[in-house]
Design a protein that fits this description.
Elements: H1 12-37, H2 41-60, H3 65-86, H4 90-114, H5 121-132, H6 140-159, H7 161-169, H8 171-176, H9 181-203, H10 208-222, H11 226-250, H12 256-285, H13 295-300
Helix pairs in contact: 1-6, 1-9, 1-10, 1-11, 2-3, 2-4, 2-5, 2-9, 2-10, 3-4, 3-9, 5-9, 6-9, 10-11, 10-12, 11-12
């Protein structure tokens, strides 16, 4: 603190966290809009557990954690894209694969904790970081890697945003107009898998779903126009990221992931309250034709 001014960005690790967090929030906000719009929130929840299972597999076999993190999320996303198109119920497909992935997670956890590198030390810390995020402790190579992956996701989603929005709102009509619905669905799931992998390092596997769903849910509450909500969602996600990191710096006892998701969830709840208030106010002010006048007004007439 200098002359009464609070300099959050005076610390290199915070500058890195804000840079990575902004890129991750942009990707999560954009892809999260389609997750909510397409009713694929359960897929995001499943991917959060896949991220942890993939990371545990990498730790158990002694390879780079990011290899298991991204590899597991992308492989599961591709599996969802292929099986989902052949099944009458996406929830059934996701739930079945989800249970299988949790079983693999239990196996890898057993292997990891039984190994000498998995008891205490850096290995145990890495496992905890995957669960709860480690955005303040990313190395330089990790930070740059996450930024590049996040910006690649943002570029891909922006490039396919208009046809993907059409295919998400009305896939039958979109297919009849020549829109490659299956290919767009595949691209969506790959982008979702990459986002799950990169966001896990920021907010952790346990809280990943909040960063995907809460900003998008708030945006869709605040506007009825899907294309406007598509751009409002990443703005809310970035604002939540900045506010959460600032709160974590101001109150060191608060984990960054808690601050980030707390702000995002608070924004969603505020959006629900605001839209409910607007709806009630509009119902009071708009009286349908033919309804009886209040007694006082009747006597005046």
């Amino acid at each position: 603190m200098t002359t009464g001014t609070f300099f959050v960005l005076a610390h290199p690790f915070l500058r890195s966290a804000f840079g990575v967090g902004t890129a991750v929030a942009l990707a999560a906000g954009l892809i999260g809009s389609f997750v909510v719009l397409r009713g694929q929130v359960f897929a995001g929840d499943a991917l959060s557990h896949v991220a942890f299972t993939g990371a545990l597999a990498a730790l158990a076999f002694g390879v780079d954690l990011r290899l298991g993190l991204y590899g597991g999320c992308i492989a599961f996303a591709l599996l969802l894209a292929v099986l989902g198109g052949r099944s009458g119920s996406d929830d059934t497909v996701i739930g079945s694969v989800f249970a299988w992935v949790l079983g693999l997670g239990a196996l890898f956890l057993s292997v990891f904790t039984a190994s000498s590198s998995g008891i205490g030390g850096a290995g145990g810390t890495a496992g905890v970081n995957v669960l709860f995020g480690s955005i303040l402790g990313l190395s330089g190579s990790q930070a740059w890697g996450d930024v590049l992956v996040s910006l690649a996701v943002v570029a891909a989603v922006v490039a396919m945003a208009r046809p993907l929005l059409f295919a998400s709102l009305d896939p039958a009509v979109a297919a009849s107009r020549g829109v490659p619905v299956r290919l767009l669905s595949l691209g969506f799931f790959v982008a979702l898998g990459l986002t799950a992998g990169v966001a896990t390092q920021a907010v952790g596997a346990l809280l990943l779903l909040g960063l995907l769903a809460a900003p998008a849910g708030a945006a869709q509450r605040l506007t009825a126009r899907p294309f406007r909500a598509l751009w409002l969602s990443p703005a809310i996600a970035v604002g939540s990221m900045w506010a959460g990191l600032t709160l974590a710096y101001l109150f060191p006892v608060m984990p960054p992931s808690f601050g980030i998701l707390g702000v995002a969830t608070g924004t969603y709840l505020a959006a629900i309250a605001w839209t409910g208030s607007v709806r009630r106010r509009s119902q009071r002010t708009s009286r349908p034709i033919g309804t009886p006048l209040p007694a006082a007004m009747s006597r005046a007439h």
